[in-house]
Design brief:
This protein is of the alpha+beta class. The protein has 6 helices and 8 strands. The longest helix is centred in the N-terminal third of the chain and has 21 residues.
Length: about 200
């Protein structure tokens, strides 16, 4: 029996000599790394909770003069919206506008809201005759009321070209990330900006 114990100790010593001793190094940076991981997780949660996702559609159009009942006129943007987007647009949908005559890098972005949507689409020929724009497919006319009628000291003029983005949908990032897991029967109007 004494021999067996000695033999077992000898085998263990020989095995340690052949394989070397296995030691698990404990990092001195253990606590700081755990704190950094926790801070990273908190930053991700804050981003998902407070961040927003906006789906928008780029469109183009022109400025048109709109007569007011009191005899004055104001400018509105007439935008041409493709079929794939028209169902998502409602009166009140926000628009971000860039006038080609006033580069946005210098004059900034302008804002407006949809006030009217045409009842029927117009053909590319009709659009070209009405606005001078050349489009490949039929599009819907959407009128946008402008927040400002002037850029700096200069008044806007009818016929100026406009590039715009209609903001179709706005959601928090966590809603966007979890959307595939949610009920697919939910109404698409649930997260609409203009509602």
């Amino acid at each position: 029996m004494h021999e067996d114990l000695f033999r077992r100790e000898m085998l263990e010593a020989r095995k340690e000599r052949w394989l070397g001793s296995i030691r698990l190094p404990i990092s001195r940076l253990g606590w700081p790394m755990a704190a950094l991981a926790l801070l990273g997780l908190l930053a991700l949660l804050a981003l998902l909770g407070f961040g927003r996702y906006t789906r928008s559609e780029p469109v183009e159009g022109v400025l048109i003069a709109q007569a007011a009942p009191n005899g004055t006129s104001s400018m509105q943007a007439q935008l041409w919206v493709p079929d794939r987007t028209i169902a998502a647009i409602r009166p009140g949908t926000p628009a971000v506008l860039r006038y080609r005559a006033f580069p946005y890098q210098r004059y900034g972005l302008q804002h407006g809201r949809v006030v009217a949507i045409a009842a029927a689409a117009s053909s590319p020929d009709q659009i070209h005759r009405r606005s001078g724009l050349r489009l490949d497919a039929p599009a819907w006319s959407v009128q946008v009321e402008l927040d400002r009628q002037r850029i700096g000291t200069q008044a806007l003029r009818a016929g100026m070209r406009v590039d715009a983005e209609l903001q179709l949908e706005q959601r928090r990032l966590y809603e966007f990330v979890l959307a595939p897991l949610s009920n697919t029967d939910a109404s698409p109007d649930t997260h609409r900006t203009g509602s």
